[in-house]
Specification:
The chain has 335 residues and is α/β, with parallel strands linked by helices. 33% of the residues lie in helices and 15% in strands. The longest helix is centred in the first third of the chain and has 15 residues.
């Protein structure tokens, strides 16, 4: 089986720090290669893979402001489809633009829909619904107007996330500094309970950061540490009493949620989007419907068995499970 894995080129695959689409694409690519699948990764030329790397973009356009995103995206996508005959399957992880090329080639195509940035992009998916097989990353992210081949949750390499059976006294936030991710809500909840909070993440909305986050950052009760990776990220995920994920949108998945739980850290999240599919209420964290419920849940964090958090990820959110489900789908699509 020869698979063309089409990654996003916003960031390197895998990303150095931020880049959730590129991260999951990399994890799947490497797991498939380990299973003997012949995968060519189409990504930025500074990407890393145990298989073959192909592409045209020198770097991610989010990392290099001299690169015009639309230009390099179309060059990148065309580069794959010009070679479609070399592959048994094209697995698109790069949003909706590649769909427009799907009828121009005979090679079957699978698209993982990482989320809908706006309802306005739905017509592109609807137009190619009969040509491209779609995978949802959560049942919550399925649109009723589309046909899906499967729902396949993301997975992580569990062995890369050390389990912390004790945690620490403080709270943590991981995510983009943007209203969607709820950092301001996390700050309000921490202040309401007198708990220390450390925020980690890329500033995506500068005005929101200046208005809703920065005025409360004192480096002690509320600290902002920016983007963090490697051992520092793992330490921050595990050495916390709980993670606050008080989102302001219907999140399609939420990698940071399962990463925290893998380290033993329970998560308090608004009951929106995929959160009920990731968090077992009262077992791996708390699903809440209001700010007051979130504040009350912070006091209940000691009720959570951190081993149960780790076990839930081991049972449902590993890269091995994810790769096996995709491989089974590949075989089904190819007959």
């Amino acid at each position: 089986m020869r698979v063309a894995m089409l990654s996003s080129i916003s960031w390197r695959t895998p990303p150095r720090d931020y880049g959730p689409w590129e991260l999951t694409t990399s994890l799947l690519t490497e797991a498939l290669i380990a299973r003997g699948v012949d995968v060519t990764l189409f990504a930025t030329l500074d990407s890393q893979t145990a298989g073959r790397l192909n592409g045209v973009a020198p770097r991610g356009y989010s990392e290099d402001p001299t690169l015009e995103a639309k230009v390099w995206e179309i060059l990148h996508i065309a580069h794959v489809f010009e070679r479609a005959g070399d592959f048994d399957l094209i697995h698109n992880q790069a949003d909706f633009i590649p769909l427009g090329f799907s009828r121009l080639v005979e090679t079957p195509m699978l698209t993982t829909i990482h989320g809908f940035s706006s309802p306005r992009i739905l017509p592109a998916y609807q137009r190619y619904d009969d040509r491209v097989a779609y995978v949802a990353i959560s049942d919550a992210n399925r649109d009723p107007s589309l046909t899906y081949a499967a729902t396949i949750h993301h997975g992580i390499r569990l062995e890369e996330f050390p389990f912390d059976p004790v945690g620490g006294p403080d709270l943590v936030f991981f995510g983009r500094i943007h209203p969607d991710k709820g950092p301001a809500e996390a700050i309000r909840a921490a202040r309401a309970t007198g708990r220390r909070l450390t925020l980690y993440g890329l500033i995506q909305d500068e005005a929101y950061h200046a208005r809703e986050v920065l005025p409360f950052v004192d480096g002690d009760a509320i600290a902002y540490r920016g983007v963090v990776g490697g051992a520092d990220r793992l330490r921050a995920l595990g050495h916390a009493a709980g993670m606050l994920h008080l989102i302001g949108f219907d999140e399609p998945f939420g990698l940071a949620v399962i990463e925290a739980m893998a380290c033993g850290t329970p998560v308090i999240a608004y009951r929106r989007g995929s959160m009920p599919e990731l968090i077992d209420h009262g077992i791996t964290g708390f699903l809440v419907d209001s700010f007051d419920e979130a504040v009350a849940a912070i006091a209940r964090l000691p009720e959570i068995d951190r081993r149960a958090c780790r076990m839930a990820v081991a049972e449902r959110f590993t890269i091995d499970r994810m790769a096996d489900e995709y491989l089974a789908l590949y075989r089904r699509l190819l007959g």
